[in-house]
Automatic annotation (TrEMBL):
Keywords for the protein's UniProt record, in alphabetical order: Hydrolase, Protease, Thiol protease
Pfam families tied to this protein: Peptidase_C48 (PF02902)
Residues of the Ubiquitin-like protease family profile domain: 136-335
Record-stated family: Belongs to the peptidase C48 family.
PROSITE patterns named among the record's database cross-references: ULP_PROTEASE
Region annotation (Disordered) ranges: 1-29, 42-69
Official protein name in the record: Phospholipase-like protein
PANTHER family, per database record: GH15225P-RELATED, SENTRIN/SUMO-SPECIFIC PROTEASE
Length: 376
């Protein structure tokens, strides 16, 4: 159990203009497809938070807290290359074809002398990371989404330049990989990828229903993730409505689903309530299939939503419209190591420091081609 045990403070249940019919152009309308530059093997999701007409300007004020290490996680990352798996699938492409990706065994990758992260990030390029999908290069845009304030401006355009700064499933799931490697063997918590409780943006099905790799995180068959049968807490990122990230903290013994939202709203709470209600029978069915309830004293789960309450800390609220993914990663890391998530200063500068710290941790996973580095 975390050092700051939550209290049972549950939330009550709540109840174009038409074309000219081809008269001017007999050719059929072209189907808009995403640029190859930003395509990813992960499930494509929209920007994490919708951009309003006016964006909040960045503050340039400094304080003594701005230079603090925002990811002060004790010894959680004392070893740069702790052995572990890279579980990297999160779903499907728009084609409807489901793909299964293999893990990378960090003990099999080769590394060379690389330039420093501060030099690399000025003009990033495609590299391999052992916390990414086996055989896949991490695209340049991975870094521009994470630390756009550090990268040199591009001379060429992309389909949606406003996506710079929003985290996608690529960063969220690679971050989960780093966290699971720091987990003590006897810890009563685990983490899970974004596909665990997320809904596909097109067919409205839960991604986990067709994702055997994430299912393996539930029963321990996907290393190094322990079986949910042997832990009390599961921390995960959740994409809500296709445009916003929140933090999920599942209390398995008491069937309570805590959600921490960095942009609190009543409408999102209702959406989350409906999403978790629909997810409950899905996850119960998968857990039953994987033997979770066999010999266990836990009954079938009937998850109750607790929204931004019950843990004794104030959930940070983002000052702009793109920091939800960064705050989610930060919160999960704090929960994993038992630190009370307290933000020294509510500023965009603080979250920029978080992005930089995350980038350094990702870059420590740099390696050569991972194509043949799977587990035996």
């Amino acid at each position: 159990m975390p050092a700051y045990t939550p209290t049972p403070n549950w939330q009550p249940p709540i109840p174009s203009h038409p074309g000219d019919a081809g008269l001017c152009d007999p050719r059929p309308r072209r189907v808009q497809r995403p640029s190859v530059y930003i395509q990813s093997p992960y499930t494509p999701l929209p920007a994490t938070t919708e951009l309003p007409k006016k964006r909040v300007g960045k503050t340039k004020k400094n304080s003594k807290n701005d230079n603090l290490s925002p990811l002060n996680l004790g010894n959680a990352f004392a070893h740069d290359n702790v052995g572990g798996d890279d579980v990297l699938i999160t779903g499907v492409h728009d084609t409807g074809i489901y793909f299964t990706y293999e893990n990378v065994d960090p003990n099999k990758v080769t590394r060379q002398e690389y330039n420093d992260f501060t030099d690399f990030i000025l003009n990033p390029y495609q590299v391999y990371l052992d916390c990414y999908m086996m055989g896949y290069l991490v695209p340049e845009f991975f870094w521009r989404q994470l630390v756009p304030h550090l990268c040199m401006p591009r001379s060429h355009s992309v389909d949606n330049p406003n996506n710079e700064g929003w985290l996608s499933g690529d960063q969220m799931n690679a971050w989960i990989e780093i966290l699971i490697r720091s987990r003590p063997q006897d810890a009563d918590w685990t983490v899970s990828k974004s596909g665990t409780a997320c809904v596909h943006p097109e067919n409205n099905r839960f991604l986990i229903q067709t994702d055997p790799h994430i299912i393996g995180m539930l029963d321990g068959s996907t290393r190094p993730y322990p079986s949910w049968k042997n832990v009390n807490w599961v921390y995960m990122p959740i994409n809500v409505g296709g445009n916003h990230w929140v933090t999920g903290a599942v209390n398995l013994p008491h069937s309570v689903f805590y959600v921490f939202d960095s942009m609190e709203s009543q409408s999102r709470r209702l959406l989350l309530e409906a999403q978790i209600k629909a997810w409950t029978p899905v996850i119960n069915g998968i857990l039953q299939m994987r033997g979770y309830f066999d010999g266990s004293e836990r009954p079938y789960h009937n998850f109750i939503l607790s929204y931004n309450k019950g843990w004794g800390f104030e959930v940070p609220q983002q000052a702009n419209f793109k920091d939800c993914g960064v705050i989610t990663c930060w919160l999960i890391a704090k929960l994993c190591v038992g630190h009370v998530p307290v933000v020294p200063r509510q500023s965009e500068r603080y979250w920029e420091n978080i992005r930089y710290e995350m980038g350094k941790l990702f870059y420590k996973c740099r390696c050569e081609n991972t194509r043949y580095c799977g587990y035996d």
